[in-house]
Amino acid sequence: MNTAELSCICKQVRRDIINMTANAGSGHPGGSLSATELMTTLFFRQMRIDPKNPKDPNRDRFVLSKGHSAPCYYAVLAERGFISRDEFTNFRQLHSILQGHPDCKKVPGVDASTGSLGQGCSIAVGMALGAKHQGQDVKVYTLLGDGECQEGQIWEAFMSAAHYKLDNLTVIIDNNGLQIDGRNDEVMSLGDLPAKLRAFGFDLHEIDGHDLDAIAAALDAPAASGKPKCILAHTVKGKGVSFMEDQVGWHGKAPNEEQRQQALKELED
Question: Which residues form the Transketolase N-terminal domain (predicted)?
Fold first, then answer.
């Protein structure tokens, strides 16, 4: 799939994120919009998956560690053919398959239930280690939030990934600089994150997380033998909607009807 096609899908994913959260009156648009290019490229260009056989034991795996960005996940899964877009009107409603955080027992294409921040990388490490033990040619991808990287369990998982030489694991960090309480540097600075990631044993690729070609190149880069890969993607929270961009208030707040229409107009333009 070429860049122009991916760009069109990204625009639709962003519209779906806005509509889902506006319809529900709740949700997390900011971090969903920042992850759009990363997840679209991963699901449409990179991963070995089959919507007709979502439990294929030989499929690649994905863990959305920052589970609150479920609107992006659901929009991508629908575009990829795993779920119907008709489900979007039920987002965050009682008994819906599309809960506020992804549930692997309910949603085809979801490999792990997530939402408690800090746990997703450990799950992905376990999946990658299991594939190694079973001799499976399976790649595992996980998407983390940068604020989430303040969690100690994340760094324990990083150490484990290096220790077990998990070159079938790719960790993607959505580095948008904001978390629920403010800017990361003000809440709990991560310091020199690239240096720390290298020191923890990653084959590091630092990119613009909205540049589709850069994302594809980082994902395509051959795995360094015996080293897990990390893609540190610099992004903008709320990307694509001017009044949401780089605004911490849009971490977990849904647009009202007027804001929905303004956002959709911008995404059409």
Answer: 12-262
